[in-house]
Design goal:
Elements lengths: L13 H10 L1 H9 L12 H4 L17 E2 L6 E5 L16 E2 L1 E7 L2 E10 L13 E2 L6 E3 L2 E6 L4 E7 L3 E8 L2 E8 L9 E10 L2 E8 L11 E9 L4 E6 L2 E3 L4 E4 L2 E9 L3 E10 L3 H11 L5 H16 L2 E4 L3 H16 L2 E2 L6 E4 L6 E4 L13 E2 L10 H8 L1 H18 L6 E2 L2 E2 L8 H10 L7 H11 L22 H7 L15 H21 L3 H10 L7 E2 L4 E2 L31 H4 L7 H8 L2 H15 L32 H4 L3 H14 L18 H11 L1 E2 L10 E4 L6 E5 L9 E7 L7 E7 L2 E2 L4 E3 H5 L2 E8 L26
Parallel strand pairs: 32-36
Antiparallel strand pairs: 1-2, 2-4, 3-6, 4-5, 5-11, 7-8, 8-9, 9-10, 10-19, 11-18, 12-13, 12-17, 13-14, 14-19, 15-16, 15-18, 20-31, 21-24, 22-23, 25-26, 27-28, 29-30, 30-35, 31-32, 33-34, 33-36
């Protein structure tokens, strides 16, 4: 998601992939078993399986941050490229490290550090001070990074707490050793200004002001404050506009930086702690005192590994191949890494919803501790088939925290938005994906947020002037690019309605709004707001207004009601497409009716026609590995099925709801293997992982659980496909759920045995393809017998009463 023209600068071609993949066959084996060579299988933990280098040949700025805690404010990582979001940050194919910077977050960046010996050329820019490195010298796992800087003979090691980056540099003997802070350097994007000053013999402090980002993703400047403390006394130096400033003890302005100089003996280790805050230098210092008062680097590495193991270990897997276990825990790692905390240890955070920064504080518990942190994140767009599901049973406290963040944003500035960047609304992508997120949270018993205020904000979004009415990155109080006026008056959003912003795609808007209406209706029903529930449920059938029976696809309309000319179900799209579908096409969005699959089947002319049409699309997409990422020059969309982007990620599971569970089992396994099965730097997700979004889809496929409805139904359920593992144990959070654990066991599992022959839930035969969320969270066991041929009778018992297949209410088509 979050398209920009830069996205087309990284074409993912099938021929190139085959060439590069051949070059990395040996590496793939190494990635899957490198730890196993040193650690017995019985001793391996989730962190030992996780490989952060997967997919790093085609990264985004926030893709790799090994020295980071789950959702850490500090996300410390080597940078090999700067100057953009796409293909920047750490790129596996690069041979030089420019710096180690502390923030790799959605639209946030800052505080590059580089150790240097000999000639000091940091004032000439990051590239001038860069050092070559070899992957042979890297050690990379969650919570720790190590590399040898060939140019300087320095070994660099990185780890972190939640808000403090911790570095250990082993120097050669030198009278000219330095650690440079190029606070004014462009990283993901530009720095407006920065300042650094010496506080004491072993401490410096300052700030960097991030410039407003392109396309209004983050429309206002945002400041990161820092306090840096050294393990030995240092001499302070500074530069401005590439010129050293003699005898300075402080520096400020544009294009400035600072450094610490000292002499070192051979093998001497110099440690550096950098604490950050988005509210004040004082709070950065408090974060340092709260989280890292000492200097035990190895102890922090151990603590970070233990922390990651606790989070990754919420889901334990056994069986499968070594590569499948590596990929599964890497999936979970990405899902827990992509979005970040922005509040201080005391709960302070910076609100930028008005014209100036305002320091606020999250709600505190009875002991005065923050109940939940404030988060920074890209849109929840597409999250109904990833975060809504995985977090709701594995990480419910995270879901609660995100709900609280969005309620805080509504309280602060009047909107529950699609995403948050530096305390700003972003209006990234389209629609109101927060609606499904809140509905799923509430209906799954995750309710530690102001429910009434949340509903108030979401209801506002369902009307003109709410968040839906803002097209992508459309700012201003009079925003109308989302077309809510047309949606309410005509039951659809026309194409070419004008206005500012991106993604003014009437087809996608209409279909997503209809689903969000249903989600809000489910939330309203659960709250006893029956009038709202009826109104919103009725409006959720607006999807039918785009069905063109002459072509049997969803088709955008013009303002006068006529069909958009030049229609084709599959066609090349890009970030600024005018084909009516956001980052996708009609062939994919035609199936974007998760709230009423029976109604969609009716439009197709019955179950058989629906199944045949959908199955044919999977057959056509198989040669492209079900992802636009494999296809040269395709941009966004232009696929029959595209698991490289969010709009497509429920398609394989629709066969379950159409009465052909064996086809869901078949195609989910195919997508899991071909689209998400890679374990090399050159593959892994074949698309934009979007801060762990596709990683979550991959993880759900691996354990065989999904929900087409996105968890938003009043009585949510999970659809079953065949897991890749022999045993999966979900450890349930006792603060939310009554059960201790839920276990999934497969019998006769193998790469060939992908079809469910029979099932038992808590020892009782289960002849339907679904079971309830309530069954999962009270604890229990699901057993699946697998075989090589489809059992077309299994899973059909009671299918017509399954969630998602309820009889249509009055007024439905």
């Amino acid at each position: 998601m979050n398209s920009m023209t830069l996205k087309t600068e990284s074409p993912k071609t099938a021929c190139c992939r085959k060439t590069v993949l051949g070059e990395f066959i040996a590496l793939a084996v190494l990635l899957a078993v490198s730890f196993a060579a040193q650690i017995s299988r019985a001793e391996m933990s989730p962190v030992d399986y996780c490989n952060p280098l997967i997919g790093t040949a085609e990264p985004r700025w926030d893709y790799l941050a090994p020295a980071c805690r789950p959702f850490g404010m500090v996300s410390l990582s080597p940078d090999t490229r700067v100057g953009g979001d796409w293909m920047c940050g750490y790129n596996y194919n690069d041979t030089n490290i420019l710096c180690f910077s502390h923030i790799h977050c959605w639209e946030l960046y800052g505080l590059p550090v580089m150790p240097i010996t000999g000639k000091f050329n940091a004032p000439d820019g990051l590239a001038a001070a860069a050092s070559g490195f070899s992957h042979k010298d890297e050690v990379v796992h969650p919570g720790y990074y190590k590399v040898f800087l060939q140019r300087y003979g320095i070994t660099a090691e990185l780890t972190s707490t939640m808000r403090v980056g911790f570095q250990r540099y082993t120097f050669p003997a030198s009278d000219s050793s330095f650690i440079a802070f190029d606070t004014g350097a462009t990283l993901m994007a530009q720095i407006d200004s920065s300042a650094v000053r010496q506080v004491g013999p072993q401490e410096i402090a300052g700030y960097s002001v991030m410039a407003p980002s392109e396309m209004n993703r983050r429309p206002k400047p945002f400041t990161v404050y820092f306090v840096a403390r050294f393990s030995k006394p240092v001499k302070f130096g500074a530069w401005s506009k590439k010129q050293l400033v003699p005898d300075a003890n402080s520096i400020s302005g544009k294009d400035v930086g600072a450094y610490a100089s000292f002499s070192t003996t051979n093998g001497e280790q110099v440690l550096l702690k950098v604490a950050i805050s988005y509210t004040s230098e004082e709070n950065a210092r408090k974060n340092l005192a709260a989280e890292l008062p000492g200097w035990d680097f190895d102890g922090v590495v151990r603590e970070s590994k233990d922390d990651w193991n606790r989070w990754l270990g919420r889901i334990e897997v056994q069986g499968g191949t070594e590569a499948e276990r590596v990929k599964f825990y890497t999936d979970l790692w990405h899902d827990l890494l992509g979005r970040h905390v922005v509040s201080d240890a005391d709960g302070s955070y910076c609100d930028m919803t008005s014209g100036k920064p305002v320091v606020r504080r999250v709600t505190l518990d009875a002991q005065g501790h923050p109940r939940f942190p404030q988060y920074n994140f890209d849109a929840l767009w597409g999250g109904q088939w990833s975060f809504n599901l995985l977090w709701s049973f594995a990480y419910p406290e995270v879901m609660d925290g995100f709900c609280n963040t969005l309620v805080n944003m509504y309280r602060d500035g009047g909107f529950i938005d699609r995403g948050v960047a530096g305390g700003n609304y972003t209006f990234v992508m389209i629609g109101d994906p927060a609606t499904s997120f809140f509905a799923a949270a509430y209906n799954k018993g995750i309710r530690n947020f102001d429910v009434n205020l949340a509903y108030e904000g979401l209801r506002k979004n369902a009307l003109p002037r709410g968040a839906r009415d803002h097209a992508g990155y459309e700012w201003g109080t009079n925003a109308s690019g989302g077309g809510m006026k047309y949606y309410i008056e005509r039951g659809y959003v026309p194409q070419n309605i004008g206005g500012r912003g991106m993604h003014k795609d009437g087809g996608s808007m209409t279909l997503e709004y209809a689903y969000e209406d249903w989600c809000l209706g489910q939330f309203a029903q659960a709250l006893g707001k029956t009038a709202d529930a009826a109104w919103l449920t009725q409006r959720s059938f607006n999807y039918t207004n785009l069905w063109d029976s002459t072509v049997s696809y969803m088709r955008p309309r013009n303002k006068d009601g006529s069909w958009l000319e030049g229609f084709a179900p599959v066609g090349k799209m890009d970030a600024f497409n005018t084909g009516g579908f956001t980052e996708s096409d009609s062939a994919i969005y035609t199936y974007f009716v998760p709230q009423d699959v029976p109604g969609l089947i009716h439009l197709f002319g019955g179950r058989e026609k629906f199944i045949n049409a959908l199955n044919r699309q999977f057959e056509l997409a198989a040669s492209d590995h079900f992802s636009v990422g494999y296809v040269k020059g395709r941009g966004h969309g232009g696929m029959w099925v595209d698991y490289g982007n969010e709009p497509s990620t429920a398609m394989a599971h629709l066969f379950n709801l159409a009465g052909a569970p064996w086809l869901s089992q078949k195609w989910v396994r195919a997508v899991k293997e071909q689209t998400y099965g890679g374990v090399t730097p050159t593959n892994g997700y074949t698309g934009d992982d979007d801060q762990g979004d596709l990683s979550a889809v991959s993880a759900l496929m691996a354990i065989g659980l999904f929900d087409v409805e996105g968890g938003a139904e009043v009585n949510p359920a999970y659809q079953i496909t065949s897991p890749v593992f022999d045993r999966i144990t979900i450890h349930l959070n006792p603060d939310y759920f009554p059960g201790r654990k839920f276990t999934i066991i497969t019998h006769n599992n193998s790469p060939q045995n992908i079809y469910i022959q029979s099932a038992k839930l808590n020892g009782q035969p289960l002849d339907r393809y679904w079971f309830s969320h309530a069954d999962l969270v009270k604890g229990g066991t699901l057993e699946l017998e697998l075989g090589p041929a489809p059992d077309k009778a299994w899973g059909l018992d009671g299918a017509t009463t399954a969630p998602g297949l309820q009889p249509d209410p009055a007024g439905a088509p």
